[in-house]
């Protein structure tokens, strides 16, 4: 008889519950199934539709105070997962539950390139539901966090991508959202901004917030996150302490870079086998539990 693990009840209501979520896309392909080859065949060929599995069924529970870094190769499904959490797209299977509306960095703050940064601070904050009085109270802290100084009075079209990202982060983080999603916004190469944003993320967690961070900067994940997950080819492979997850992911990518595909596949398989999968169950009261 196989022993089953006891169900672990969460002490507090979770911020985000990802329940057996999967995502598929139907996209055209130029790959031929029949007909002539060569350039002539390519030009005359009608596009076929194929199904791409962006995310395979996965479950994840984020609690208040979590700062979760999401790592993985390009095309692994990281941004798709973020779009599912914030409600930009609906999953093909499963469901996502959130205790409040997630704020996606750079999405809720709809900024206008032709306007100065200070005007965009007002527009972005209004778009996120702040009143004029609240904007006045938080304006100085937003500018300070962005580090733009006098550049805040220049048109946003004159900003570098890093400057624009810092302003978007400062605006999004100004409302103390319960759930904040950040996609590559902190990779600006600015050490001072990294210190300020790390401090702000700590404040968000202390205020019962939850942060999801997608970043190719593994140092950022280790420094700013309390937890990390590794996604590869749509599969959730690891969920644990950032240092452990980052180390395994680095070993995996190092073997791939050297052409050691068999060794890399072994690391991937071992990580997947060691993962304790989350299963969301219904309570008799209708509330959900995780194990």
UniProtKB/TrEMBL annotation:
The keyword Transferase does not apply. The gene is tagH_1. This is Teichoic acids export ATP-binding protein TagH. It comes from Arthrobacter saudimassiliensis. Keywords: ATP-binding, Nucleotide-binding, Transport. Residues 39-258 form the ABC transporter domain. SUPFAM superfamilies: P-loop containing nucleoside triphosphate hydrolases. CDD domains: ABC_KpsT_Wzt (cd03220). GO terms for molecular function: ABC-type transporter activity; ATP binding; ATP hydrolysis activity. It holds the Pfam family ABC_tran. Belongs to the ABC transporter superfamily. GO terms for cellular component: membrane.
């Amino acid at each position: 008889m196989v022993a089953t693990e006891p169900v672990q009840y969460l002490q507090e209501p979770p911020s985000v519950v990802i329940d057996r979520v999967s995502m598929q896309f139907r996209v055209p392909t130029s790959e031929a199934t029949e007909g002539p080859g060569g350039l002539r065949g390519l030009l005359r060929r009608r596009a076929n539709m194929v199904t791409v599995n962006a995310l395979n069924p996965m479950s994840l529970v984020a609690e208040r105070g979590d700062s979760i870094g999401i790592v993985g190769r390009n095309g692994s499904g990281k941004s798709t997962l973020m779009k599912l959490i914030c409600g930009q797209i609906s999953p093909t299977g499963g469901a996502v539950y959130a205790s409040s509306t997630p704020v996606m960095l750079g999405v809720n703050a709809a900024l206008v390139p032709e306007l100065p940064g200070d005007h965009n601070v007002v527009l972005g904050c209004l778009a996120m539901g702040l009143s004029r009085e609240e904007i006045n109270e938080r304006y100085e802290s937003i500018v300070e966090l962005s580090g733009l100084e006098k550049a805040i009075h220049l048109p946003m079209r004159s900003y570098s991508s890093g400057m624009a990202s810092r302003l978007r982060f400062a605006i999004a983080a100004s409302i103390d959202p319960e759930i904040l999603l950040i996609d590559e916004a902190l990779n600006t190469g600015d050490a001072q901004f990294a210190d300020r944003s790390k401090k702000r993320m700590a404040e968000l967690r202390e205020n019962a917030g939850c942060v999801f961070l997608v970043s190719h900067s593994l140092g950022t994940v280790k420094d700013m996150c309390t937890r990390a997950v590794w996604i590869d080819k749509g599969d959730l492979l690891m969920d644990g302490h950032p240092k452990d997850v980052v180390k395994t992911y680095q070993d995996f990518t190092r073997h791939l870079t050297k052409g050691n595909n068999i060794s890399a596949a072994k690391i991937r398989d071992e990580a997947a086998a060691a993962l304790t999968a989350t299963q969301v169950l219904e309570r008799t009261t209708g509330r959900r539990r995780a194990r």
